[in-house]
Design brief:
It is a single chain. By secondary structure, the chain is an alpha+beta fold. The chain folds into three domains: about 80 residues, Aspartate Aminotransferase, domain 1 (Alpha-Beta Complex); about 140 residues, no CATH class; about 110 residues, no CATH class. It is about 20% helix and about 35% strand. The N terminus is likely disordered.
Length: about 375
């Protein structure tokens, strides 16, 4: 099976799944006001095998001096020659309802000119939110998932990116983030991908499930307001749990996403193509060098010379034409172009040309 045959099969499968899928509300929407809180902090990673920051990174030395001073150790800055320490930024996400003492994962990224964080340990670092309050403290050994080996013979072996590491469960919640969205009877769900049709469909599905109009109301393309007190006397937790497990038909904009760097093409099942004729052909131009050897003149003590002799080879493929019907989908187009033997990069150019011709009824996204 060729590379493009696999792509065509994937497009067909995606089309069939999206055509009949009923999606749970909790998979495409969330309760408004219960967003994650982004945290960040500045710290030090110790225990590196000579791969830490160099002396040019001044803030690393200043941090080490300040840390030792807090421990009662006075040390002049000119005596700091530590290559086993690196200054890092610590980032993480605090999920809603994370209680004090619970743990979550963090990411540690180098700030200076360290060459690797492999084998390092993050010392206790407070991490704060956008409001300036410290919500957690982080500490623990890093997992980089790679290595960076160098020797004095200038050989270099590297696997993955070793200047960023993760500490699973490395942060402990010290301060709980307060949410007040569950203190009244009015709730709202926000769609992750705003769409007017999807919002109306979700509101209709909730009203049909309870058999009462007015429980759910779409206020915009992303928000569906809920009136819990209208027909539900239980706890807010039970109401939210029941609503988020309901299913409805999600409507999405027809899109074709193209990544020209990798030759990846992903298309949704709602993409349609009007009747169009596609011709594929290519011209290959290759410049080669066929050097010639020139012999010297008689009675000349000079040796033979090799001079370049560039030549151009032009190879043109026979163009073929495929006519697509009015109701053609992207999966049909993939199969038709596969019969022409085109590569994914050629298909990208063809899709762009079909879009310019006005026959591709979808939003073309190029990454």
């Amino acid at each position: 099976m060729s590379k493009f045959t696999k792509i065509a099969s994937a497009v067909v499968l995606l089309t069939a799944v999206m055509a009949s899928a009923q999606i749970r509300i909790k998979d495409v929407a969330s309760v408004s006001g219960l967003e994650d809180v982004q945290l960040f902090g500045y710290g030090l990673v110790v225990g590196l095998a000579g791969t830490g920051d160099r002396n040019q990174t001044v803030f690393t030395e200043q941090t080490i001096v300040n840390m030792l001073k807090n421990m009662g150790i006075e040390l002049p800055e000119r005596h700091i020659r530590v290559r086993n320490v690196a200054a890092v930024m610590v980032t993480g996400h605090l999920a809603p309802f994370k209680r004090r003492g619970t743990r979550f994962d963090i990411t540690v990224s180098s700030m200076g000119d360290a060459t690797s964080l492999e084998g390092g340990t993050l010392i206790m670092t407070p991490i704060q939110g956008p409001d300036g309050h410290v919500y957690a403290s982080a500490q623990g050994p890093l997992a980089t998932g790679g290595y960076d080996l160098r020797d004095r013979g200038f050989s270099h072996i590297k696997r993955n990116h070793v200047l960023v590491g993760r500490i699973p469960g490395g942060a402990i919640v010290q301060r709980e983030y307060q949410f007040n969205v569950l203190n009244n009877s009015d709730l709202s769900f926000s769609l992750h991908s705003p769409d007017f049709t999807s919002a109306v469909s979700m509101a209709q599905a909730i009203n049909a499930q309870y058999g009462v109009d007015g429980i759910a109301r779409a206020t915009d393309a992303a928000t569906v307001e809920l009136n819990m007190a209208l027909s539900y006397d239980g706890s807010p937790m039970e109401f939210i749990s029941r609503v988020e497990n309901m299913t409805f038909q999600v409507a999405s904009q027809a899109r074709v996403v193209i990544n020209e760097r990798t030759g990846t093409i992903v298309a949704g099942g709602t993409v349609r193509i009007s009747q169009v004729a596609v011709t594929h052909g290519g011209v290959k131009v290759e410049v080669v060098n066929l050097p010639e050897v020139i012999q010297p003149f008689p009675f000349n003590f000079a040796g033979p010379e090799v001079v370049p002799n560039p030549a151009m080879i032009v190879e043109e493929k026979d163009a073929e034409m495929v006519v697509l019907d009015e109701t053609t989908t992207v999966s049909d187009l993939a199969q038709a172009l596969n019969s022409l033997g085109v590569t994914p990069r050629d298909i990208i150019a063809i899709l762009q040309a079909i879009k310019e011709a006005g026959a591709l009824h979808a939003h073309l996204v190029i990454l």
